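[job 0412] stage=complex_fold ligand=zinc ion status=START
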Amino acid sequence: MSKVIKGGTVVTADLTYEADVKIEGGVITEIGPDLSGDEILDASGCYVMPGGIDPHVHLEMPFMGTYSADDFASGTRAAVSGGTTMVVDFCLPDPGQSLMDALMRWDNKSTLATCDYSFHMAITWWGEQVFNEMETVVREKGINTFKHFLAYKGSLMVNDDELFASFQRCAELGAMPLVHAENGDVVASMSAKLLEEGNVGPEAHAYSRPPEVEGEATNRAIMLADMAGVPLYVVHTSCEQSHEAIRRARQKGMRVYGEPLIQHLTLDESEYFDKDWDHAARRVMSPPFRNKMHQDSLWAGLQAGSLSCVATDHCAFTTDQKRYGVGDFTKIPNGTGGLEDRLPMLWTYGVGTGRLTMNEFVAVTSTNIAKILNMYPKKGAILVGADADIVVWDPKRSKTITAANQVSTIDYSVFEGKEVTGLPRFTLSRGKVMVEESTLKTEEGHGEFVARQPYTAVNKALSTWKELVSPRPIARSGIPPSGV
Ligand code: URP
Ligand code: ZN
Ligand code: ZN
Ligand code: ZN
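[job 0412] stage=complex_fold status=DONE, emitting structure tokens
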């Protein structure tokens, strides 16, 4: 049974051209004019693009005394409704827990997924067991990325000695570290002071983690990664201080990638000053939303190529969950949603305003991350042999974002009231139509785990260079006798 996406314009990270796309057995088998097949999907007036890949989501995440509300079923449903066909979640071992045991929990949760998914493994504690299990994670479990939290002191945070040890281990294994870059010690100290002074509302969350806190941690992680000889991926880059560190590192030849979120690109810190406690608390996430200067920096980074991918960090908590923090902002569960809105928002505010070309849009929503995570061209491509994870994008369809009509299970949207133009006509996951305009045809359990191999081209280049310039003893003749 074949399908043909007919009459559209194919848009990839580097090309725009008219062609039909034929799909058989879940993969693309032909691209060209006048193709025929058993089922025709009308793409006239539409762009045929690689489905979005969201490299940063937390589905049913155990965090701050609760679980994020969207699980792999509702989260991936939300994803495909907005044109995203793959998500990457974070496996989080408890303190002292085996990485393998944690992975079993994530394997169980993800059986509900509608679209394909992969995992990053988090390093939440350090010891010989973690050191050893990292090898199994990479060699046997198809995970080549390890996440490190420099924030969340007392729970997920790792110290610099642990961080450097893990970065060195990543280098040995051909893996890539990721960092949540905020100085957790400074955040904890500032939070305690703010509470003492009576700053207990959600606005104090933003006061407790200014851009300098993020810039410092980003610089530190970059330096440690450089010393360890590994590439580095900085998640949720939200401000100029962090972007500047990434830009400077890249300009010096370091392999550092920055990931702004659609929320930081389009929402600003004024959200925290809203008189409605719920409104402000619903936007509490780390790092917090910033002012326009920072937003402009992030957009410029996408244009210049110093920032690589746009994600959501989808970690959705209901209003009731957010209210755990009434009277103490440090207890508001950190996280915001946006999985279904990432593509329409970025298209509207990026392509629609002329900040991004359509090809850049594809690059930062799909192709770049597929390459960085070593799953290109299976994912992130419209090429013969690639998985048929495709969005048929109708640039004329529009809607007003509202919680009442969203797919995510939470009771509000941080993008409430935003008008977007550009929405999926069809979303296909490995050839299966999951979405046709507003109609969901999702199938729980259709999603498969995507295994990713280590030793990417970047890892290889970096280790070749590091080996060439590594410290070596100088061979000397005539060594003087010891002075003793
Ligand atoms: O506030 C956030 N970002 N919550 C999710 C966990 C994380 O830090 O990525
Ligand atoms: Zn984070
Ligand atoms: Zn996150
Ligand atoms: Zn299926």
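The CA atoms of residues 240 and 294 lie 5 Å apart.
[job 0412] exit 0
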